[in-house]
Amino acid sequence: MKIYRIGMYENPTTDKILSMPDIRYANFSALGKWVQQKKPCTTCGWHWQDYGPPLLIEWDNPRKTIGDFSWDGPFGYLFVVKEHVSKALREMEFPCSFYKTKTTHKKSKTKNNFQEKNDLLLSYPNSFIDLDLSLSNVTPISYCKFCGHSRFTFRNNGIIIRKEHWSGQRMFRINTNGNSFATFVTEEGRFLIQNLEFSNITLSEAGKILI
Predict the structure, then answer these.
(1) What is the predicted pLDDT for the residue at 24?
(2) 50 by DSSP, 3-state: which?
(3) Which among 161, 172, 170 has a CA at the least distance from the CA of 130?
(4) Count of CB atoms within 10 A of residue 130's CB?
(5) Which of these, 9, 17, 15, lies nearest to 204 by C-alpha position?
(6) Sign of the dihedral through C-alpha 140, 156, 71, 87
(7) How far is CA 48 from CA 18, 36, 37, 143, 184, in A?
(8) Which residue in 47, 101, 166, 179 has the most C-beta neighbors within 10 A?
């Protein structure tokens, strides 16, 4: 069964982005709020810092259309969604949590920084799956004996997952990708998302589950 990576564009490259005559949808920069479970490791520097609610976002191109999905840049994996999208994903039992966001605007000569509420929700896929390290060509990079943290090569395509490591989730992240928000869906998840015709989301083939 194939799996798909979700994002703003299908397999984006810098050349592809630069050659586009027009970028219709706005993207954002995530500024925080930051939370951490504990202090960074004093040996390897690994931190347990992550985004927490409310996520503070700043639009990079605010005059453009805000899609049903919005991303932290054309190459980004972090995404926020409109309220009707979160409702639909909940109803379809996608394993994803949603948190409030606030919007901030850059200072200008006539306007100071300010924050405002919006109806966009930070989407936090909270199901993680192990891939097959060998078949996915993933190798260890480092291991810290002090805190126990391991780093592996990042993988967003060519992913192979064994059946016994998958519990039927329609949406998930990969354990060895660490804190990355790179998110994947199954064929069923892809069908459900495409059937609702949400704007500003593409699904790129990224590997398969061996079933």
Answers:
(1) 80
(2) strand
(3) 161
(4) 14
(5) 9
(6) negative
(7) 35, 5, 6, 16, 22
(8) 101
Name, in order, each residue with C-beta under 8 angstroms of 22's C-beta and a sequence gap of 6 or more.
none
What is the predicted pLDDT for the residue at 110? 42
pTM: 0.89
Q: Report the amino acid identity of residue 150.
A: S
Q: Is the distance from CB of 169 to CB of 125 less than 8 angstroms?
A: no
Specify whether the CB–CB gap between 125 and 172 falls below 8 A. yes
* Cβ-contact 153, 139 below 8 angstroms: yes
- CA 16 from chain center: how many Å? 21
Instruction: Give the sheet arrangement for strand 184-186, strand by strand.
Output: 128-129, 171-174, 184-186, 2-7, 202-210, 159-162
Tokens of residue 200, six digits: 């500003």
- Using CA atoms of 192, 157, 58, 171 in order, give the dihedral in degrees to the nearest 10: 30
- 16: cis peptide before it, omega within 30°? no
The residue length of the chain stands at: 211
- Single-letter amino acid code for the residue at 172: F
> Low-confidence residues of the chain, pLDDT below 50?
108-114
pLDDT at 109: 44
Confidence at residue 64, expressed as pLDDT on a 0 to 100 scale: 84
> Taking CA 66 as the corner, what is the angle to CA 32 and CA 172, rounded to the nearest 5 degrees?
60
- 158: phi > 0 → left, psi -120 to 50 → alpha, else beta; which? left
Helix H or strand E encompassing 86 = helix 83-91
8 A C-beta contact, residue 95 and residue 106: no
